[in-house]
Amino acid sequence: MSSKSQTEKPDRASVDGMTPTGDTSTHQVEGPPYQVSWETLSLAELESALEIGTECGCNPRGSRRGHASGIATAMTAGDWQSGIPDIVCLCTHGGISNGRHRCLAAVEARQPLTGWVGRDVPVEVIRYADIGLKRTPADALAGRGVGSYRTALGAAVRLLMLYDTQRDVHWSLWNRTRFTAPKIGDLFDQRYSGVVDTVEAGRQIESGTNCCPSAAAAFAYLMRREGGAERLAETAYGLAGGTPDVRDILAQARTRLSREAKHRGRKADHNRAPYELGLLITAVMAKEAGKARFTFGENSPMPKLGFAEQLAAEAV
């Protein structure tokens, strides 16, 4: 059963430090035609309400499993905060008619959901409710002053986090892990704000190889982090076409990625970003080792980018 700690939302005029102004007889309005309370919905209640909501048809909107999974990931990681002002609404049948993604996420994360809950909400209210705007990682970076290339950089932050924390998981499975826009913003603040400093090199690499923008941006950041600005500049130049020798490793990588991009046409395939990142790293490491060729395929593990001078510095 749900627990209730407050019977209804506080009236604005009763909040400390605020008093009603103007003609109260003119501005006073009636409350909503349903009850709102602060509650914790148990897993059993959520599962039942979701099932009823699917059957009764009072929720006119579809749901996106990927979006719900992203919220579930945030909940599991402890990045979710209770008390979102958007009300979870139950229709007159007891089914979820608003806040479905949060409820699906809570069930997936196996956690109860605490927040404002509206009960017996008329279907007419939901049918004409503002669905709202989905916030993206690009929005999160825009709020932090990033002026351009935001979509690529937001996706690159996710890719970098996976590279740093999940190289033991095969890169072909990385696309199952989603991060919410607030999480991307936090990761940018805490770990990867330097991606904005390598944008031009990332654009250069993308232009020369036709790889995904996020793969180019993540690779450029890693090259500077692990190898320094000079090595990044040399690599970006080579991948952009500055290496005339077709036998050079960077030229081989450039040709291979360009050929693969041509075969798939203009259709963007962001699921390829981990693969392209791995291919670029493999090529650079092969060049560093003095090899004439490199191999990277669908079954290859994600390699680690590292250079001798840094390894020596870490050993000190």
Write the layout of secondary structure elements.
Layout: E1 3-6, H1 24-27, E2 35-41, H2 43-56, H3 65-76, E3 88-91, E4 96-98, H4 100-109, E5 113-121, H5 123-127, H6 137-142, H7 150-165, H8 181-192, H9 199-209, H10 213-227, H11 229-242, H12 249-264, H13 273-288, H14 308-315
Parallel strand pairs: 3-5
Antiparallel strand pairs: 1-2, 2-5, 3-4
Helix pairs in contact: 2-4, 3-4, 7-8, 7-10, 9-10, 9-11, 10-11, 10-13, 11-12, 12-13
What does this protein structure show overall?
The protein has 316 residues and is α+β, with helices and mostly antiparallel strands. It has two domains: 35-127, no CATH class; 137-312, no CATH class. The chain contains 14 helices and five strands. The chain has a five-stranded mixed sheet with strand order 1-2-5-3-4. Helix 7 (150-165) packs across helix 10. The longest helix is centred in the middle third of the chain and has 16 residues, at 150-165. Residues 1-14 have a biased composition (Basic and acidic residues).
